[in-house]
Design brief:
Keywords: Kinase, Phosphoprotein, Transferase, Two-component regulatory system
Oligomer: single chain
GO molecular function, one term: kinase activity
Distance between the termini: 14 Å
Order of helices and strands: EHEHEHHEHEH
Protein name: Histidine kinase
Helix content: 40-55%
Length: about 130
């Protein structure tokens, strides 16, 4: 069995964090969660992750702003982490908007957990 992949979940909803943790832990991913973009950047200073699930609408620093900050990090490995947007406002954005911000993919809310698992696997298991 390969090593457990590490996923950082940036989401301000405790319900979504808990459901996402349960689903992805069951699928053998190691999950760390934070509540806003500033906490994402703080986590990245000390840890490596294989993927970030990024809520777009969060307090203090939203997902778009945080993604742009990650893409400009001096550590090229961290700057290239796959980032998947999680959003209930997907109609307000096009995939081009997400790509311009540096996001690799998106999943709309309410989350479909089969889509969640498939999308995470697509970006971390190569």
């Amino acid at each position: 069995m390969s090593e457990m992949k590490k996923v950082l979940v940036a989401e301000d909803s405790s319900v979504i964090i808990n459901l996402t943790k349960n689903v992805l832990t069951f699928e053998n991913f190691h999950i760390t969660s934070v509540k806003n973009g500033k906490q994402v950047l703080a986590k990245l200073e000390n840890e490596d992750f294989d993927l970030i699930l990024m809520d777009i609408n969060m307090p203090q620093m939203d997902g778009i702003e945080c993604t742009k900050a990650i893409r400009s990090l001096p550590d090229s490995k961290k700057a290239k982490i796959p980032i998947i947007a999680i959003t209930g406002n997907y109609k307000n954005y096009t995939m081009d908007d997400f790509k311009q911000a540096g996001l690799d993919d998106y999943i709309q809310k309410p989350l479909d957990y089969d889509v969640l698992v498939a999308t995470v696997r697509k970006h971390v298991i190569k």
